[in-house]
Amino acid sequence: MATQLYLMRHGQTRFNQQGRIQGACDSPLTALGKEQALAAHQYFQEQGIEFDKIYSSTQERACDTAELVSKRTDYIRLKGLKEQDFGAFEGQQEYLNPPLQGDIGYSDYFVTYGGESYQDVRQRMVETITGIMEQSDNQSILVVSHGAAIAQFFRQVLTDYPRVRMRNCALLTFTYENGNYDLLSIVDPVNKETLYQKEGSEKEKK
Predict the structure, then answer these.
(1) Which UniProt keywords apply (predicted)?
(2) If I label 171, which of 20, 81, 82, 154 is the partner at 20 to 30 A Cα–Cα?
(3) Which residues, in sequence order, are bridge partners of residue 182?
(4) 174 marked among binding-site residues
């Protein structure tokens, strides 16, 4: 049987609200961000989804989201799940970001400014999440991470991936079996909106 992976982005933060670049630096969840996480908790309850294990990025915004979503504190924090480091651009206004370059995001733009390349983000995310999956046979796993890091992960493990922007608390549901990831759906649990559904897979309950 396949292992079930629920990969989630954190709730809204102060920097999200202010339109600031937020990668290696951190800012707390806003009141809305906490409400989003609690709405995701309610969504999981309605769907009857329970987790055998919970993992989170070491950053506060992800840890707080994991706790609010699961109502548990026995989660494991892993640095490999952190957001991309944007170097000297950290904390600056988002309009300073360069244009996205198709499938590779910002490419190596931020390396010049002390940041992380997209290849490095992909490598650590895939290694970290696959390490979790290999230790979690036939289990249900929640992983809370970050928008850019999640996007680089699925661009690496999927040959054909959906062009969907990661909303706060966006939830990606994968199966993992024999070293392969299969993306079943992307859901906005806050608004109970399906953003992507794999053709032929079971529809999310409403």
Answers:
(1) Hydrolase
(2) 20
(3) 175
(4) no
SS3 169: coil
Q: Per-residue confidence of the chain (206 residues) as pLDDT tens digits?
A: 789 999 999 999 999 999 999 999 999 999 999 999 999 999 999 999 999 999 999 999 999 999 999 999 999 999 999 999 999 999 999 999 988 877 777 889 999 999 999 999 999 999 999 999 999 989 999 999 999 999 999 999 999 888 888 999 999 999 999 999 999 999 999 999 999 999 877 654 43
Q: Which residues pair with 133 in a beta bridge?
A: none
User: Is 65 labeled as ligand-binding?
Assistant: no
Q: 10, 41, 116, 146: which is the annotated catalytic residue? A: 10
Q: Does 138 appear as a known binding residue?
A: no
Active site residue 146: no
Annotated active-site residue 10? The verdict is: yes
- Three-class DSSP category at 128: helix
10 is in an annotated binding site: yes
Q: Within 13 Å and on the Cβ side, how many CA atoms surround 73?
A: 0
